[in-house]
Amino acid sequence: MDVNPWWVAIGFAGQALFSARFIIQWLASEKARRSIVPRAFWWFSLAGGMTLLAYAIHREDPVFIAGQGAGLFIYLRNLSLINRDRKTQQETDQQETSQHKDDAVQHKDGAA
């Protein structure tokens, strides 16, 4: 078996990134006093999954490759859904702000 120290380091780095997501989720939940999954959880999942996938490909391990490869789609989909929700919320906030300004102008014009 090829035990190249660089690949071992890459494998451990990927595992560290992947494991860090649980610490991030735990700390965010403790801070909120409820169970939540912050965006950083999905970013660390993606970074760790990609790094571990590279390591799995180097090791030529089809089981490891399939497991990490499939996970990447889930992580990307969750980030996509979060991004879509943030854009929708920003549009809603802008519409509400615009409506409040229109209401203030109408009120001012009516009071004058």
UniProtKB/TrEMBL annotation:
<keyword id="KW-1133">Transmembrane helix</keyword>
<feature type="transmembrane region" description="Helical">
    <location>
        <begin position="40"/>
        <end position="57"/>
    </location>
</feature>
<keyword id="KW-0472">Membrane</keyword>
<keyword id="KW-0812">Transmembrane</keyword>
<feature type="transmembrane region" description="Helical">
    <location>
        <begin position="63"/>
        <end position="80"/>
    </location>
</feature>
<feature type="transmembrane region" description="Helical">
    <location>
        <begin position="6"/>
        <end position="28"/>
    </location>
</feature>
<dbReference type="Pfam" id="PF07578">
    <property type="entry name" value="LAB_N"/>
</dbReference>
<feature type="region of interest" description="Disordered">
    <location>
        <begin position="86"/>
        <end position="112"/>
    </location>
</feature>
<feature type="domain" description="Lipid A biosynthesis N-terminal">
    <location>
        <begin position="10"/>
        <end position="81"/>
    </location>
</feature>
<dbReference type="GO" id="GO:0016020">
    <property type="term" value="C:membrane"/>
</dbReference>
<dbReference type="InterPro" id="IPR011499">
    <property type="entry name" value="Lipid_A_biosynth_N"/>
</dbReference>
<protein>
    <recommendedName>
        <fullName>Lipid A biosynthesis N-terminal domain-containing protein</fullName>
    </recommendedName>
</protein>
<feature type="compositionally biased region" description="Basic and acidic residues">
    <location>
        <begin position="98"/>
        <end position="112"/>
    </location>
</feature>
<dbReference type="GO" id="GO:0009245">
    <property type="term" value="P:lipid A biosynthetic process"/>
</dbReference>
<dbReference type="GO" id="GO:0008915">
    <property type="term" value="F:lipid-A-disaccharide synthase activity"/>
</dbReference>
